[in-house]
């Protein structure tokens, strides 16, 4: 079963269109969502959460329509949004008194345990916490009602590498057969570490969806000099980028390519390099 199914999702703003996008987040998986600033990640996440009234298309969460069964859905999801936060004069204890009313399975001992394990005292008001600590409180608040699905917009931004690792471990442990995570981030190494698949969005369109294992195994960036290009001619590629010294190709068949052209330099593709190819290169 899919935790999230997005079909034909469209949001039109004066200077931006989320262009009838489609993707699934399968149960039991972590899906990374990447794209440059302004590509449409937050818009997509907000539309999934039914926070954009003029969004068109359909979104279902565990088979429930996100508009018609909004309340039933909200109980099952934990959310971290980039720009939303609790009242800054609240202590974490006061936040819990609000959330306990919203979620019937709010788990206060678990929330306290998470805070304590990360050195956050209950009596501190949010505005006195560091940026990283606030980010952690947001994540712990999203986890403490034991949701089935986590939808996270830039959850690890502002966290140091050690804290990020701890949080990624929590996400990793969260996953079971019927649970899932949709996770946007500019910290592509976090996505590389835990995502099962990655969705690339560019200027409001989904341009690439890859299985991580396949991506790591088979995606590459082939760099051809002018003479190599003249020798072998045009190759099969997803994106092409011409630079002063070579023509670079994002390819999805690195191992086969290396067998056929052992003399050509092919680097393993990273998410970051792929994002650059998407942004600066031309699509086939
Ligand atoms: N309420 C709004 N009204 C008009 N335009 C909007 C609104 N919200 C977002 N946009 C536009 O939609 C585009 C996509 O924004 P969005 O926040 O979804 O991008 P993003 O991929 O999350 O970027 P970032 O990585 O910077 O957070 C931007 O051009 C933004 O200006």
TrEMBL record:
Claim: Repressor is one of the keywords in the record: no
Residues forming coiled coils: none
Pfam family, one: ABC_tran
Single annotated GO MF: ATP hydrolysis activity
Keywords from the UniProt entry: ATP-binding, Nucleotide-binding, Transport
Domain of life assignment: Bacteria
InterPro entries: AAA+_ATPase, ABC_transporter-like_ATP-bd, ABC_Transporter_VariousFunc, P-loop_NTPase
Domain (ABC transporter): residue spans on this chain: 1-228
PANTHER family from the UniProt entry: ABC TRANSPORTER ATP-BINDING COMPONENT, ABC TRANSPORTER ATP-BINDING PROTEIN ALBC-RELATED
Protein name: ATP-binding cassette domain-containing protein
């Amino acid at each position: 079963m899919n935790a999230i199914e997005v079909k034909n999702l469209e949001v039109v703003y004066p200077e931006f269109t989320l262009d009838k996008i489609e993707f699934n987040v399968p149960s039991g998986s972590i899906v990374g969502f990447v794209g440059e600033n302004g590509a449409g990640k937050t818009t997509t996440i907000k539309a999934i959460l039914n926070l954009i009234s003029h969004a068109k298309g359909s979104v279902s969460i565990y088979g429930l329509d996100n508009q018609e069964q909004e309340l039933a859905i909200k109980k099952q999801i934990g959310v971290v949004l980039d720009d939303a936060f609790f009242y800054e004069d609240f202590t974490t204890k006061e936040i819990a008194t609000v959330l306990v009313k919203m979620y019937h399975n709010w788990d206060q001992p678990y929330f306290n345990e998470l805070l304590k394990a990360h050195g956050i005292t209950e009596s501190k008001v949010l505005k006195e916490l560091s940026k990283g600590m606030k980010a952690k409180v947001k994540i712990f608040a999203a986890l403490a009602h034991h949701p089935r699905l986590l939808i996270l917009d830039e959850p690890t931004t502002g966290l140091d590498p050690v804290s990020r690792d701890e949080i990624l471990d929590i996400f990793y442990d969260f996953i079971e057969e019927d649970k899932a995570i949709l996770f946007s981030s500019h910290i592509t190494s976090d996505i590389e570490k835990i995502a099962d698949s990655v969705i690339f969005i560019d200027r409001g369109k989904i341009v690439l969806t890859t299985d991580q294992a396949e991506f790591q195994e088979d995606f590459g960036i082939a760099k051809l000099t002018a003479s190599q290009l003249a020798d072998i001619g045009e190759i099969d590629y997803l994106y092409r980028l011409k630079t002063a010294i070579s023509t670079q190709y994002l390819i999805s068949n690195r191992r086969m390519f290396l067998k056929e052209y052992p003399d050509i330099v092919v680097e393993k593709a990273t998410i970051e390099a792929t994002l650059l190819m998407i942004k600066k290169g031309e699509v086939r």
